[in-house]
From TrEMBL:
Spans annotated as Disordered: 65-84
Keywords of this entry: Membrane, Transmembrane, Transmembrane helix
Matching Pfam families: DUF2909
InterPro entries documented for this protein: DUF2909
TM region(s), chain numbering: 6-24, 36-57
Domain of life of the organism encoding this protein: Bacteria
Name of the featured protein: Transmembrane protein
KW ATP-binding (keyword) present: no
């Protein structure tokens, strides 16, 4: 799954580069730049939906940051800080 995600990201970057080349070198009013950017946006939306579905069906698991436990003691008081 990770390889597929990386490949899609590389195709997205390639499409963006292609659109840049068309924008700089193509002096006519051809729609190639718009088509390349539309393809890139479609791939980006498709990748986002793929990631959401992979998470929903358990293919991808987030690992995130570890949870920080609140300090033990009196509620509302923090140890080591002067109290007002």
């Amino acid at each position: 799954m990770k390889i597929l995600i990386v490949l899609i990201l590389l195709v997205i970057i390639g499409s963006l580069g292609t659109a840049l080349v068309y924008l700089v070198k193509d002096r006519t009013r051809s729609p190639r730049t718009v088509k390349a950017l539309t393809f890139r946006i479609s791939l980006s939306i498709g990748l986002f939906i793929l990631l959401l579905l992979a998470y929903r069906f358990g293919v991808l698991q987030p690992h995130g940051l570890p949870r920080i436990q609140p300090p033990q003691g009196n509620p509302g008081q923090t140890e080591g800080l002067p109290q007002p």
